[in-house]
Amino acid sequence: MSLAIFDLDNTLLSIDSDHAWGEFLLEQGAVDPVAYREANDRFLADYEAGTLDIHAFLEVALKPLAEHSPEQLAAWHQQFMASKIEPHILPRGEELVARHRARGDTLLIITATNRFITGPIAERLGVDNLIAVEPEIVDGRYTGKVSGTPSYREGKVERLEAWLADKELTLDDAWFYSDSHNDLALLELVEHPVAVDPDPTLREVAEQKGWKIISLRD
User: Fold this and answer.
1) Catalytic residue among 9, 16, 18, 105, which?
2) Confidence class of residue 218 from pLDDT cuts 50, 70 and 90?
3) pLDDT digits over 144-191, tens only?
4) Fewest Cβ atoms closer than 10 Å to its Cβ: which of 22, 35, 143, 202?
5) Any catalytic annotation for residue 53?
6) Residue 63 CA from chain centroid, whole number
């Protein structure tokens, strides 16, 4: 039995769920239509370029969670799943997860997107283990702050190592599937790094290192 680790956005999904949530909030009139759209698009570009200031991003991204009730957020997330996520779940991604499940592997999604957004997505994909950015909750409401280390770039490695220690697991014979050069630190650690529809930087590195390159898109 091995550990099969999956990035989520643009790996098992054909979109970035963090950016899609921002677009959804704009459609609901829940955020400033000009400033939030500009920030949402800018942060996505920074992420793709590998220059994202994760704390500056989270200050903006987590603020709407603090501004609305848990009931409103839950209702919105149901709509979000149906309209924004379900159409972008990659069938070949689901097949890949199913193959690892059939082998008896331990399944884990690790993502730089926060747990509010990704928890229901992981559940929909049938993956019980999730490492995500943890929004702080006090007295049943989001505060708009982040709890602990964000699972981004080297933070993914830090969070994974803590998770492995807690579960008494190792990375022996582990797989990691990702599309992004932001995940190079973690890809370097596993025995089976797989570049999935990789961005240009990751593709170049994967080709140089002889890593497997696959596509989960039609």
Assistant:
1) 9
2) confident
3) 999 999 999 999 999 999 999 999 999 999 999 999 999 999 999 999
4) 35
5) no
6) 19
